[in-house]
């Protein structure tokens, strides 16, 4: 299933490539973080990464603001764990770097195995927290396969979608609990 999904994603990217290229050339959009989106882990992240980290994906400014308190609480209760934040938008990236530090923030890689595996290998997350309903199948699959627990915070999902998801599990709030 993941292979079929990846092939369809690659086909969609190939078909839409003229539009993406035009956006890049005309407006400069998506230029920032392009290498990171293609799986190049920035050195600033590599230098501080360690086994058992926590990876939080906050899509844009709203999610970065929403997880700010969570990051602070996780830092207080998990002193030995590094917390990293990925974003999708340039404005979210800017705010996240301002709030959490440049060395712990990066652009979310594209949902291709070759892009994601590099980040999973470097970060070796114990926990992946998604701060929105932006579910990327390969990210979820590879994170779980690497041994990371996956949780969703600050998101809504319909009862129908929850039932169809098959492997979703609910968890108690993280506040005050150490991750061991």
How would you sum up this structure, described in words?
This protein has 180 residues and is of the alpha/beta class. It has a domain at 2-9 and 50-164: Rossmann fold (3-Layer(aba) Sandwich), CATH 3.40.50.11720. Helix content is 49%, strand content 11%. The chain is built from eight helices and five strands, in the order αααβαβαβαβαβα. Strands 3-2-1-4-5 form a five-stranded parallel sheet, with helices on both faces. Helix 4 links the parallel strand 1 and strand 2. The protein starts with a helix and ends in a 16-residue tail after the last helix. Residues 167-180 have low confidence and may be disordered.
Mean pLDDT: 85
* End-to-end C-alpha gap: 32 Å
Helix count equals 8
Note the overall shape: globular
- Element order: H for helix, E for strand: HHHEHEHEHEHEH
Walk across the major sheet and give the strand order.
3-2-1-4-5
CATH superfamily of the domain at 2-9 and 50-164: 3-Deoxy-D-manno-octulosonic-acid transferase, N-terminal domain
Oligomerization status of the protein chains: single chain
Task: Return residue spans where pLDDT drops below 50 for at least 5 consecutive residues.
Answer: 167-180
CATH topology of the domain at 2-9 and 50-164: Rossmann fold
Classified by CATH, the class of the domain at 2-9 and 50-164 is Alpha Beta
The proportion of residues in beta strands is 5-15%
Radius of gyration (Å): 16 Å
Query: How would you sum up the major sheet?
Result: 5 strands, parallel
Class by alpha and beta content: alpha/beta
